[in-house]
Amino acid sequence: xxxxxxxxxxxxxxxxxxxxxxxxxxxxxxxxxxxxxxxxxxxxxxxxxxxxxxxxxxxxxxxxxxxxxxxxxxxxxxxxxxxxxxxxxxxxxxxxxxxxxx
Length: 102
Fold this sequence. Notes:
Blueprint lengths: L1 E10 L10 E3 L4 E10 L5 E9 L4 H15 L5 E4 L17 E3 L2
Parallel strand pairs: 1-5
Antiparallel strand pairs: 1-3, 2-3, 3-4, 5-6
């Protein structure tokens, strides 16, 4: 099974505490961000991680994939959509933004 990881920034309601929301400077949105893992067909896998919008995608993807591996032992490949620095994801060598598990 393969997983694709991406995120979406959402505006937060006025009732959301400032401690759990932030500012996504790239999309110019204040609020929260949800990080998702989907399969090759675009179907949602078992893990959704919600963070403040100020959290970088690369910083949230490692815990997201760790939680995904706890749920899905047959995960073979994870592809991150270009935002991981080379070597940032555990097990990835220099210049690669995907990881294979055996």
